[in-house]
Amino acid sequence: MSWRRASRLADPALLYKITSILLRYPDDQVLAYLDDVAAALPAVSSSRARERLAQVVDWLGAVGSTEAAAHYVSTFDHTRRRSLYLTYYRHGDTRARGMALLVLKHTYRSAGYPPPERELPDFLPLILEFAALAPDAGTRVLIQCQAGLELLARALHEVASPYRHLLDVLCGQLPALAPRHLTELRRLAAEGPPTEEVGLEPFAPPDYVTGERR
Predict the structure, then answer these.
(1) Please, what is the end-to-end C-alpha distance for the chain in angstroms?
(2) How far is CA 198 from the centre of its chain?
(3) Which of 62, 107, 110, 149 has the fewest CB atoms nearer than 10 Å to its CB?
(4) DSSP label at residue 85
(5) What is the separation of C-alpha 78 from the centre of its chain, rounded to a whole number of angstroms?
(6) Higher pLDDT, 186 or 72
(7) Which residues pair with 123 in a beta bridge?
(8) Do you find a cis peptide bond into 12, omega within 30 degrees of 0?
(9) DSSP class of residue 74?
């Protein structure tokens, strides 16, 4: 999607596009997009969301690639509480997660978005890239993962990471948590993800999956 086209999109597609870029590993390619992201921000209708996104853009531009990359790795790569892989919060490293990943791939393909093989389909920037292209289907995926998003947002606030602003924007796009999701959130916050380490292979063969995960 070109930025000229993206800047004309209404929310939430533009928000998903911006956050999909800002939540990726801040290498030179991502940092090269910062001017384009900044130019697109006036098209964001919510002033509060616009301010939060601008804070991340300004921070990335100020600290540079080396410091930004070190912060990214320490924030996301070595902790169970701040994972960007959203099915991990509900399922941990269990076979149930393998099934959830398979269903998520099916959701992508059904919407005409073949998921890249180099990345797990529950990687938040990848989900947001999909949501920018298919906002309705992408929003449904985010709602299904909402408890994990809320946990990630809380954990980022605890360490005062600038990335917390992006999670605040995303959580603000979604409806209030349903009672069953609140119950799940409290359980996950207290217990953490399941720890059964039996791999990520699903119980069912690929042709078993014909619908979206509930």
Answers:
(1) 30
(2) 25
(3) 62
(4) B
(5) 17
(6) 72
(7) 85
(8) yes
(9) I
Round the average pLDDT of the chain to a whole number and report it. Answer: 82
CA distance 193 to 92: 5
Q: Residue 128: how many CB atoms within 10 A of its CB?
A: 24
CA distance 206 to 67: 42
123 in helix, strand or coil?
A: strand
* Token pair listed for 204: 């069912």
Helices and strands (H, E) in the chain, number of each type = 12, 0
* CB 90, CB 206: distance < 8 Å: no
* pLDDT, tens digit, 9 for 90 and up, residues 94-116: 677 888 899 899 999 999 998 88
Global pTM reads 0.81
Residue of 133, 170, 178, 156 lying closest to 52 (CA atoms): 170
Q: What pLDDT, on a 0 to 100 scale, did the predictor assign at position 204?
A: 34
- The pLDDT > 70 percentage for the chain reads 77
Inter-helix orientation angle 135-144/124-133, to 10°: 150
Residue 170 has pLDDT above 70, yes or no: yes
Any bridge partners for residue 85, and if so which?
123
Q: Please give the structure tokens belonging to residue 173.
A: 């796009």
Quick check: helix, strand or coil at residue 144? helix
